[in-house]
Specification:
Blueprint lengths: L1 H11 L3 E7 L6 H10 L8 H8 L9 H11 L6 H17 L2 E8 L1 H6 L5 H19 L2 E9 L4 H13 L5 E7 L11 H9 L3 E6 L6 H8 L5 E4 L7 H10 L2 E4 L1 H6 L11 H6 L3 E4 L4 H4 L3 H10 L5 H13 L5 H15 L2
Parallel strand pairs: 1-2, 2-3, 3-4, 4-5, 5-6, 6-7, 7-8
Length: 345
């Protein structure tokens, strides 16, 4: 472990950009224990037993069903406006501690509203308010992405898209389609995403993670995706890879998450470097730092250590992530210039 720690310090020092982090996968364990106590929730009394319900363990079966099951437990914790304010603030504080300079935090209003049936517009406003406050406090640039799930109704997605569109000026910049792509189609959402794009929202779509490369083509052509969440199966179809190259579509790759959810058999088999060598615009992200028990520094370490990405390439990918960010042009230019200076590129 010592070598890892020494190396990790190198990566901790790097300025970072995170494009793919779910708020619901970023809860601290001790915060969950606090929430449970305050709200009289029945959960395992000790933190280690709670951890088995909400974090991936070494002994778990690495399947997408098991990975997604962690969210079912997490959904029980969103019990009050205070809780939502707190987990938003802490997610941003944790990113700032890891030297993340630009963070796009995605959150699922339907998931956050479910336990107590909060109105969706309230939930969205709570996240916006807390994200703004934490971003200022920790001096990190934060934009928000509203996420909707394939397994939930198109009506709910439409409500979220509508509310997000009304809040573009408040740091909410994009709409995301997530959830189980292996068993639920994207077609019901085509119209909603088209309208969201017309309203000025950026579009990022989870695709080609648990589903085939064809889903990536669908995301780009039918849903208007500017970026792809995961997309690790893109090379299975040369025509889809060509489309992604031609468009310069950025891929939000999450190495540990793909291993833990059974997308790849071992960490070393992850196609990150193959994607890069085939001209795919890859960026490196955490997905769900708490569920996976990781930081972005750790993911950078994995990319270079387990997947043999040269340090120089990693630095270039950090800048590529900034260039793919859903930022106004002037903010983006400033961020890119600052990163290039610090990374000596």
């Amino acid at each position: 472990m010592e070598r890892v720690t020494a190396s990790l310090n190198t990566y901790r020092a790097l300025p970072k950009v995170e494009l793919h982090r779910h708020l619901e996968g970023s809860l601290r364990l001790d915060t969950m224990v606090d929430i449970a106590r305050q709200h009289g929730m029945t959960i395992p009394a000790d933190v280690l037993r709670l951890s088995t319900l909400v974090q991936v363990q070494e002994e778990d079966k690495f399947t997408f069903q098991n990975f997604l099951s962690k969210f079912n437990t997490l959904r029980m914790f969103y019990r009050s406006p205070d809780v939502i304010h707190r987990i938003t603030r802490e997610a941003i504080e944790d990113a700032a501690k890891d030297n993340v300079r630009y963070l796009e935090l995605r959150f699922t209003p339907v998931a956050l509203s479910r336990a107590e049936r909060f109105p969706l517009h309230d939930v969205i406003d709570w996240v916006i308010a807390s994200a703004g406050e934490a971003a200022r406090k920790h001096n990190v640039n934060v934009k928000l992405i509203a996420s909707v799930n394939r397994h939930e109704s198109a009506e709910l997605a439409e409500q979220v898209a509508w509310l997000a569109g009304e809040r573009i000026g408040n740091g909410l910049v994009a709409l995301d389609l997530a959830g189980n792509e292996a068993e639920f189609p994207s077609q019901p959402f085509y119209g909603i995403f088209k309208e969201a794009k017309q309203a000025g929202l950026h579009i990022t779509i989870h695709a080609g993670e648990w589903g085939p490369a064809a889903h990536i083509r669908e995301a780009i052509e039918e849903l208007g995706a500017e970026r792809i969440g995961h997309g690790v199966r893109v090379l299975e179809d040369e025509n889809v890879a060509a489309l992604a190259r031609e468009r310069g579509t950025a891929f939000e790759v999450c190495v540990t998450s793909n291993y833990q959810s059974g997308v790849v058999g071992t960490l070393e088999e992850h196609p990150l470097m193959k994607m890069f060598e085939n001209g795919i615009n890859v960026t490196i992200n955490t997905d769900d730092p708490s569920i996976s028990r990781i930081t972005l520094s750790y993911e950078y370490y994995n990319a270079c250590d387990a997947l043999q990405m040269p340090q120089y390439t990693l630095k270039e990918r950090i800048v590529a992530a900034a260039q793919a960010g859903f930022l106004p042009d002037d903010e983006k230019e400033k961020l890119v210039a600052q990163l290039k200076k610090e990374l000596k590129l």
